Amino acid sequence: MNRRVLPWLTVLLCLLPLLQAAAGEKVQKRDPYGYFFNDTFGDFQEELQTAREEGKQGIFLFFEMDECPFCHRMKNTVLNRSDVQDWFRQHFLNFSVDVEGDIEIVDFQGKTLKQKDFAYREFGVRATPVLLFFDLDGQPVARYTGATADWKEFLWLGEYVVEGAYKKQSFSRYKRARRKAEQP
To answer: pLDDT by residue (tens digit) across 18-64?
Structure first.
């Protein structure tokens, strides 16, 4: 190999991971309410049927409130990413629930109640955001309280549910294994 080329090749090989990382961050940002969350009339029994018909793995609920800075961070840095939106829309029906909301909904068992009662009484939501995944029978299978560290951790949380890993291990253990697998 030419002696002049070797130093440049070495520099290029060192910069390649940085260039790939920078290129990976050029993801389209879109409004989460238009592209992440599905439209609903608040009948979660009906949404379960739709999820089954569309071949989804379940339903994802994002319990939030207007004043929550962590909810806003999730919507502005994670749920607004087109790659996250596309992946979650492929696997789940995704809905936002206002933990202070007075709008009536129908829960997974067919009971009519206000959003705030659904959040607090049915699932004990006291802090936001709460990320809650349900199987196709309307049973909760995974819960995460608080904002995820970043978009990658949020995708891991979705994969944790889709892969059925929640049946045999905690998300913390799953996440630790994923991080370890990514290390060179």
So the answer is: 444 445 557 899 999 999 999 999 999 999 999 999 999 999 999 99
Taken in order of first residue, the domains within the chain and their CATH numbers are: 29-182 (3.40.30.10)
Please, are residues 149 and 131 in contact by the beta-carbon 8 Å criterion? no
18, 20, 22, 24: CA torsion to nearest 10: -150
Alpha carbon dihedral 38, 41, 45, 47, in 10-degree steps, equals -20
Pairing of strands 104-106, 92-98: unpaired
Q: Which two tokens stand for residue 103?
A: 């709008």
- Is the pLDDT at 16 greater than 90? The verdict is no
**CA triple 130-125-85, angle to 5 deg:** 20
Residue 169 CA neighbour count, 13 Å, CB half:
12
In angstroms, the CA 132 to CA 130 distance is 6
